Amino acid sequence: MNIQSNESHLVVAPPSGDPLVVDTAGHFETALDWLSSESGPVAVDTERASGFRYRQSAYLVQLRRGDAPAVLVDPVAFDQSAFDELQSVIGSTEWILHAATQDLPSLNELGLQPERLFDTELAARLLNLPHVGLGGLLDDLLGIHLKKEHSAADWSRRPLPGDWLAYAALDVEYLDVLRTRLIELLDEQCKLSFAHEEFDAELGFTPKPAPEEPWRKTHGLSSVRTPAQLKIVRELWRERDEIARSRDLSPHRLIPDRAIIAAATTKVRNSQELLALKDFNGRAAGTQLRHWWAAVQRGRSTDEPISLRAPSTGIPGHRTWPSRHPEAHERLEALKSAATAVADEHDLPRENLVAPQALRDLAWQLDGPVDAQTVRSALVASGAREWQIQLFAPAAVHALESAGQEPN
């Protein structure tokens, strides 16, 4: 498959023209006119303020359709009725997104939901392309180079600088032509039907629910050795989360995880000793010191039970299988080998043929005689699509039947 384009050229401004920044009612009406008067799919993207804000809300929504310039909608400037109107204009057409599952939750929060979509990143993964990021795809397939210099910017800032707006517009400038090229490649590899099944599945995407004890995700927790220390981690994490939530700030912009670990693992007698710790720093280490010290004291005095290890749910972690569950481990290794062989045959990444968790579920659950229907039912329960089941199920049956058999 020849995907290499001519040498890339740098693009710093949208060739279709300056984007329309939509932050007034009049601009919103103009944007709706542009979107409704053009035909074809609509390119969609969002910019969030990850690392700056607590909530993963969209602070800019970029849209482009047909030959018109992009429209950049400021969600902060409008109420829900405006987005209901936008949904009525674009909801029934195909949306083109890159890495759709990153944008759909914040779009859904605004009441924006596609009936059909095309995910350019997922299409690139099914094609097993060397680069699946938007910049890499545009370089490889279209010979267009974009500077990705504002991806980690604080998009909640107002007003947004002009170069940021140009950057945001370029994120949707080429999605339509990229979609056309990817469809050609998918068709050449007989994977277009695979892609449509994947896109349909993404329409129902919902983020994973938060873990029951999210504080256990604190970086450096492995250095905490006692339940007493762990209680301090828990109370500091909760205090930081509550302050961050109330102020809509990223928790790590208050104090970093290393500050929580330092406070938990070092014996300090008062708030000033806490503040003097080398690793107890951060923008709010001093300004919110009374809150941090109160959390440390609560951690020391609480009777709320705690376990050094997170409560176990579901199947055991597969890293323990070789020693504790050797038969399940053998089945898992056989399934991995089978999945790799099928993926290589069809030029697919293994994780796109069958999810790693689905392989573990199969290996753990199917510990007796298996047949095609049993494997199919298990794959369906894991969320596998029909194309994945048709390609992988026969090899999975053979792998499970072979696991544990003595070699001739």
What would you say this structure looks like, in words?
The mean pLDDT is 95. The protein has helices at 25-37, 80-90, 100-109, 120-126, 134-142, 162-173, 175-188, 192-202, 227-247, 257-265, 271-276, 289-301, 321-324, 326-345, 350-353, 356-365, 372-381, 386-402; strands at residues 9-10, 20-22, 42-47, 60-65, 71-73, 94-97, 116-119, 144-145. The protein is flat and about 65 Å long. It is α/β, with parallel strands linked by helices and 408 residues long. Strand 4 (60-65) and strand 5 (71-73) form a beta hairpin. The strands form 2 sheets. Strands 2-5-4-3-6-7 form a 6-stranded mixed beta sheet, with helices on both faces. The protein has a two-stranded parallel sheet with strand order 1-8. It folds into 3 domains: 9-202, Ribonuclease H-like superfamily/Ribonuclease H (Nucleotidyltransferase, domain 5, 2-Layer Sandwich), CATH 3.30.420; 214-301, Orthogonal Bundle (DNA polymerase, domain 1); 318-402, DNA polymerase, domain 1 (Orthogonal Bundle).
